[in-house]
Design a protein that fits this description.
CATH architecture of the largest domain: 2-Layer Sandwich
Helix content: 25-40%
CATH superfamily of the largest domain: RimP-like superfamily, N-terminal
Number of helices: 3
Number of domains: 2
Strand content: 35-45%
CATH topology of the largest domain: GMP Synthetase, Chain A, domain 3
Strand order of the largest sheet: 7-6-5-4-8
Structural class: alpha+beta
Largest sheet: 5 strands, antiparallel
CATH class of the largest domain: Alpha Beta
Radius of gyration: 17 Å
Number of strands: 8
Order of helices and strands: HEEHEHEEEEE
Length: 153
Amino acid sequence: MLIEQLSALIAPEVEDLGFIFWGLEIDGAGQHEGVMTVRIFIDYEEGISVDDCQKVSHAVSAVLDVEDPIHRAYVLEVSSPGMNRRVFNAIQAKSLEGFMVKVQLFEALEGGRRRFKGVIESVVDEQVCLKTEEGEVSFSFDNVEKMRVVPQF
């Protein structure tokens, strides 16, 4: 799949520059016409600046020009994950224990629900335990279609 191929190419470049490769999204990949957007999220302990994004963009562009894994027009975007960051894997979910998240699952749990909002109680291996207003729910991270942090002010 293109996301895995791009992540394998991009993550080492980002990390060599001293940043954390948080994740990657592709918009418009299924369209036959139009421009696809490749969005890279980077992080750093002290935060991300516009200059950091520019540095990563130049390095990643060079790699993509040489490797040429995308065979159509695309736009490359680099940004921080932000406060409402998307959670791309179980390791990231583990680091966000105690945070409020919104989750959409690929397959519904018992009771037919696919969408939940709650606090990440724990993440053990790939199993996520979420405390919602209705009670606790547990699911495998492999079943997560999308998870985002809900900023609390």
